[in-house]
Amino acid sequence: MLEAGQSVTVVFNNPGTFDYHCQPHPWMKATIIVQGEGKATPVAGAGLEEPDPPAISPLKATAFVGLIIAVVFGAGFAMRRRPHEEPLPPAEEGDD
Most buried by CB count within 10 Å: which residue of 9, 13, 24, 37? Predict the structure, then answer.
């Protein structure tokens, strides 16, 4: 992925129709149509490097997991069923 202010140039050496989509926004799709004479050199990945995977610090990951656990336990505590008092047995006749 490109950071703000970065750019990339993609060179297509052979004519053809190439479909692509935006990796973080997969609903954004387009087609590139390349016309003209092709070169004999094969294109492997159009010269793009594989982006580094997103990284998160261990401290942030631990804090995030702790927050999720706290939310789950908090929700469970808030939604727990409170025991109701048992109803008294019906009084027998003559027990005044």
Answer: 13
- pLDDT tens digit sequence for 33-55: 888 887 655 555 555 667 677 67
Place of tokens 């939604």: 79
pLDDT for 64 equals 95
Q: Between the CA of residue 47 and those of 25, 53, 56, 78, 94, what are the distances in Å?
A: 22, 18, 28, 55, 97
- CA angle at residue 67 from 62 to 70, to 5 degrees? 125
35's CB contacts (< 8 A; 6+ apart) are 15
How far does the chain reach from its first CA to its final CA, in angstroms?
84
